[in-house]
Amino acid sequence: MRHRTLATCLLVTTIAILNAPNAGAAKPRKDGRIVALTPQQAGPDFKVQGEYVGDVIDENGDTVRLGVQVIALGHGKFDAVAYPGGLPGNGWNRQEKIRASGETRDDGVTYFTSERGRGEIRNGVLTVWDKNGRRAGELKRIVRKSPTLGQKPPKGAVVLFDGTSAENFINGRIENGLLKEGCTSKQKFQDHKLHIEFLLSFMPEARGQARANSGVYLQGRYEVQVLDSFGLEGRANECGAIYGIKAPDVNMCFPPLSWQTYDVEFTAPRFDKNGKKIANARMTVWHNGVLIHDNVEVPRTTTAAPVKEGPEPGPLYLQNHGNPIRYRNIWVVEKR
Predict the structure, then answer these.
(1) Pairing mode, strands 290-298 and 125-129
(2) Residue 40, CB half-sphere, CA atoms under 13 Å: how many?
(3) 120: left (phi over 0), alpha (psi -120 to 50) or beta
(4) Using an 8 Å Cβ cutoff, are 242 and 222 in contact?
(5) What is the C-alpha separation between 10 and 317, in angstroms, rounded?
(6) Does residue 328 register a pLDDT over 90?
(7) Worst-scoring range by mean pLDDT, 77-91, 95-109, 189-203?
(8) Domains and CATH numbers, the chain
(9) Fewer beta carbons within 10 angstroms: which end of the chain, N or C?
(10) Res 303: pLDDT
(11) Residues 148 and 331 sit within 8 Å (Cβ to Cβ)
């Protein structure tokens, strides 16, 4: 298949990434690891990471679309993931992806080594050559935006946060007009639609659940995971997952420091007059405008949920997992 031949070429591709000059100084933690909430704090690796997309000529001579995600791992090290057909949510066939790794050398160029091909990224353009030295094409670095980013609340919506005050939250804290993690809405809800925007901190040396972790808990009970899962597998404990219950249908996590959106249709569980549960909660979730959960049954609360399951309405809880996360444009439409 033509995607497979191209993917094989990418798997063994060498990618050289030329870091841009005059990058802002990275902001380290007390342990020396970088934790940044702005590109200016993030350092040179931030300018290497990101998404690249373009058309290339495969080994059969066919022109095909290709997406690549480059993930910063700290200290000049990177992973790269190639997606035949385009980026996740925008052309990828959801079947095949190819990973490579590399590091920045003393010459300031980052190399992903291979025996069957090579590539270079300079000034935001990835040029790819096949194993025979033939130039296959160029991929440009892009910054995607969710189609629901900045969406205004409809008439009758409950606006929980618009950047002016955190008074609608218990332990609500604002920094530079953004809501910090670790707060709970004062108002409680049953069936509702939620719109929320979030920004993951840039923590390149961190791994797994220690990498920009938070969580959006509907009713304080059912978590949609918030995590820097850019370029990962999209598992049931990664970004977009209904935590511990279902992985997202596709990993739509953007790179850290990109604003992202969740739009959630939530149906609360039902209880009889004796307090016995007769129907589980359900969720439909769009991550950055792409459907990742379609009316999924949620049989239990998340393990770390602060509110016990019951017939009562519950709040929106934004988890503090020890990592800085920022939220904005939070509103709810209640279903009557």
Answers:
(1) unpaired
(2) 0
(3) beta
(4) yes
(5) 42
(6) yes
(7) 95-109
(8) 2-142 (2.40.128), 158-334 (2.60.120.560)
(9) C
(10) 93
(11) no
Going by C-alpha positions, the residue among 5, 76, 85, 68 that lies closest to residue 47 is: 76
Which residue in the block uniquely carries the two structure tokens 């609340």? 153
Long-range contacts of 85-94 (CB under 8 A, 24+ apart): 85/3, 86/53, 87/51, 87/53, 87/144, 88/250, 88/251, 88/252, 89/250, 89/252, 89/288, 89/289, 89/290, 90/53, 90/144, 91/65, 91/67, 92/67, 92/250, 93/3, 94/250
CA distance 1 to 58: 10
Residue given tokens 């393990």 in the structure block: 303
Asked if 303 and 312 touch (Cβ cutoff 8 Å), the reply is no
| Residue 132, both tokens | 């025979």
Please tell me the distance from the alpha carbon of residue 213 to that of residue 37, in angstroms, as a whole number. 13
Residue closest to 316 by CA, chosen among 329, 328, 332, 296: 332
Is beta strand 135-142 parallel, antiparallel or unpaired with respect to 50-57? antiparallel
Cβ atoms of residues 46 and 66 within 8 Å:
no
Q: What is the pLDDT of residue 31?
A: 62
Read off the pTM: 0.90
Q: Which pLDDT does position 281 carry in this prediction?
A: 98
On whether the CB atoms of residues 87 and 69 are closer than 8 A, the answer is yes
Nearest to 283 by CA among 203, 213, 169, 194: 194
Phi, psi of 324 (to 5 degrees): -75, 125
Instruction: Tell the residue number behind the tokens 């149906």, with chain if given.
Output: 267
Backbone angles phi, psi at 7, to 5 degrees: -60, -40
Tokens (6 digits) for 208: 């797994």
